Amino acid sequence: MNQEQRLNYLEAMGIQVWLPRRSKHDVPDEDYVSTESVIEKPCETIIQEGDRSDKIHTWDNLSTQVRTCTSCVLHKTRIQTVFGIGDEHADWMIIGEAPGAQEDQQGEPFVGRAGLLLNEILFSLGLQRSAVFIANILKCRPPNNRDPLPNEVEACSSYLKQQVELIAPRIILALGRIAAQNLLQTRESIGRLRGRVHYYQSIPVIVIYHPAYLLRSPVEKRKVLQDLILAQQTLGKVSFSENHTNNE
Ligand code: SF4
Q1: What pLDDT, on a 0 to 100 scale, did the predictor assign at position 237?
Q2: Which residue has the higher pLDDT, 227 or 15?
Q3: Residues of the chain above pLDDT 70, percent
Q4: Distant-in-sequence, close-in-space partners of 184: CB < 8 Å, separation ≥ 6
């Protein structure tokens, strides 16, 4: 999809298109990116290239552990666990809060209307859903979609940590306040967290509004577009940093 098609698509989504100014050297728009968003350290490779079969074996073990997990009370009310879906070698990892009712039934994160909107957000980045990896902070649905409890997040956190280590994405999108706060170990509001680059296991994290919130407040889609541009700029810097290091 070329840029013109993508812009048309964003407009079709109801997003007023906003683009960063670019010089002939393609310098990011400094007016938008706060000083906190400047990458101060290169993305470190979490997992060295190793035996691919070992990695697959570890991934399968992790999947089995999650499927049979009873480490918190949520195992009593779930229909099934929701491990995550997508490319296990993806550059982009998408992390949400927890499965909802439809996800609990289907065993897949971000299905339903919020999932469709997430697909559109990914599409605006030129990404198919299958090209990223989508996971949640919690692998089991909290009853009545209540917020995850701290002990549940703690019990489940090692699974997400291992997923991130194995996938070794170049960038993470945290969807919504709950995902962002738990991932980044902060109580800051999403309004303060978005628009900046954070880190989880040395991987850059961009916080965007949750698709379910965007369905209720479509006017906020414009801010998501700004955050996606920040994510693309950040990924560009990570790629440059990696290439630079590799060429040294
Ligand atoms: S939410 Fe996580 S820790 Fe709790 S039972 Fe499900 S997989 Fe286990």
Answers
A1: 78
A2: 227
A3: 75
A4: 174, 193, 198, 200, 205, 207
Report which of 187, 234, 237 is spatially closest to residue 206, judged by C-alpha positions: 234
Distance CA 91, CA 99 (A): 23
Question: 79 CB less than 6 Å from ligand 1?
Answer: no
pTM of the model: 0.80
Q: Give distance in angstroms: CA of 43 to centre of ligand 1.
A: 29
pLDDT class of 43 with cuts at 50, 70, 90 = very low
Tell which residue, 193, 170, 194, 92, has the closest CA to residue 135: 92
pLDDT of residue 53: 74
CATH topology of domain 51-247: Uracil-DNA Glycosylase, subunit E (3.40.470)
Residue 135 Cβ contacting ligand 1 at under 6 Å:
no
Domain boundaries, the chain: 51-247
212 lines ligand 1 (CB under 6 A): no
Average pLDDT, the chain: 84
Ligand 1 near 129 CB (within 6 A): no
Which of 76, 103, 137, 138 for a ligand 1 pocket mutation test, highest count of atoms within 8 Å of Cβ?
Answer: 138
